[in-house]
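Quick one from the shared queue. A colleague (R.T.) flagged Sporulation protein as missing a structural entry in our internal table.

Convert sequence to structure tokens.
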Amino acid sequence: MKTVIYLDELVLVNFVIAAAFLLGAGLLAGQRCSGPRLAAGAGAAGLSALLLLAPELPFGLALGVKAASGGACVALAYGWPGRRSFFHLAGWYLVLNLALTGGVLALPGGGAQTGNLVVYLDITPGRLLLCVAGVYLALRGILFCFGRPGAGCVPAVLELGGVSLPVRAFYDTGFSVEDPLSGRPVVLVRYEAVRTALPPALREGLDAQLLAGGCPPPPDPALRLRFLPCRTIAGAKLLPALPAKRLTRQSKGRTYRQENLLAAFCAGSNEEGWSLLLGAETAGALGL
């Protein structure tokens, strides 16, 4: 018995499934994506379903193609929020797809055909989309009962040293670095994430404080560097800090800003997804 597959139906149904599960992965990983990016990721997933019709590939090659197509869908939807966040997103996207496949196969009359590790579920599109809605609603119910992950990173612009630095800001409820002298709000910046955008003189001064080994030399007074005490589980340390003109965030046609703040720098890139950390006061000013 032959199965008739309508290509437009195959692509469209997989588009809807991918859109729902990319959103679900973002909810579980604490990340957000825009509508156009979501459509791009879901569109790539819909087209990748055509692998089902391709000549059968060796298992290793098929696995590599499947992993690459899944990673591309996540990357199109969420970009590169850092290695750790990206693999969280990709992992949850895979888990949700497996949950749907397992749930459908457990239904009476469910069946499947495979080709190049693409699964074709032998049920009507309407029933399949109802199953997708069931998985998504179950996810929302779990998050409603047990709480969502922390809000994802949001794009913002930090102005200091005469330059504007695009950053990914993350609100951490446990962040409490303060300026003991002026009481100004403080944000924490991952230095390597913004290093190349800083003026050369400032970059050299911060390189000496954060990247050079041993005891760093006193900074040039013209840089206006000061040091803030910071306590972590590894012990107390001093972080170099600079006055910042403002931190700005755009959202839904509104502009949020925090002015007259200090930017403290720590070593590290944005591999965890964020390049700027802020506390409760600044998060409130930015509408988070």
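The chain has a mean pLDDT of 80.
Residues 7-146 form one domain.
Added to the table.
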